Amino acid sequence: MSRYRVRRVFRPAVYWVASLCARIGLSPNQVTLASLVAAIIASLFLALGFPTVYGLLVFLSGFLDGVDGALARITGRATPQGGLLDSVSDRYSDVAVLVGFAFWREAENFNFLFPVRVWVAFAVAGFLMVSYIRARGEAAGVQLDVGFAARSERLLMLSVSSLLYPFFRQAPLLGLVLSCAASHATAAYRFAAGSVRVKKHRLLQL
């Protein structure tokens, strides 16, 4: 994992909240579902025209996504079923935080190369491909947690840009474009890195 990852910055806070969750008896799966709910509610707030609330909830969703894994490690409750739930929940969350842009009325006139709904479609594809390529790499026996714009970074882009809305009304939409471009760049980098690593992995097995 890159040493420049956002998760490293928030790790102390993530583990502090995870310890608090452990003390009050929350399970990792409950935190995972809370992260998904936050993402869905964020999308609804954006569609209703509240981008700053959206930004806060997207940050909360991403933060809780780190807490559930930390909680599982602290409590020794990491399971394959929990890992599957976390992965599926993350993919639904990724789609949810992007779909809200397609229904935000203020975004209807946005047309930077493409209309906003095309950007949403491109972003959904990019977000999913970053995770898919990593999963395929792991299935082939290689680690592909590489590239700048992993999930935490993409969610932070959406969150920060939306929180800047009171100062610059186009900021959330530019955050959408930036996270879209970053996701496809990261997917391409992972694919290239994966192609090389899979070849090396096979040669070592010969």
Care to give the gist of this entry?
With 206 residues, the protein is mainly α.
Question: How are the secondary structure elements laid out?
Answer:
Layout: H1 6-24, H2 28-47, H3 51-75, H4 80-102, E1 111-112, E2 114-115, H5 116-139, H6 151-163, H7 171-205
Antiparallel strand pairs: 1-2
Strand content: under 5%
Name of the level-1 CATH class: Mainly Alpha
| CATH level-3 fold name | Four Helix Bundle (Hemerythrin (Met), subunit A)
Average pLDDT rating: 92
Number of domains: 1
- DSSP summary, beta strand count: 2
Give the radius of gyration. 18 Å
Ranges with pLDDT <50 over ≥5 residues?
A: none
Can you characterise this structure?
By secondary structure, this protein is an all-alpha fold. It has one domain (6-205): CDP-alcohol phosphotransferase transmembrane (TM) domain (Four Helix Bundle (Hemerythrin (Met), subunit A), Up-down Bundle). Helix content is 77%, strand content 2%. The protein has helices at residues 6-24, 28-47, 51-75, 80-102, 116-139, 151-163, 171-205; strands spanning 111-112, 114-115. It has a two-stranded antiparallel ribbon. A hairpin with a 1-residue loop joins strand 1 and strand 2. Helix 2 runs parallel beside helix 4 and helix 3 (51-75) runs antiparallel to helix 6.
List the defining traits of the structure above.
2 strands, Four Helix Bundle (Hemerythrin (Met), subunit A), 206 residues, mainly alpha, 2% strand, single chain, two-stranded antiparallel sheet
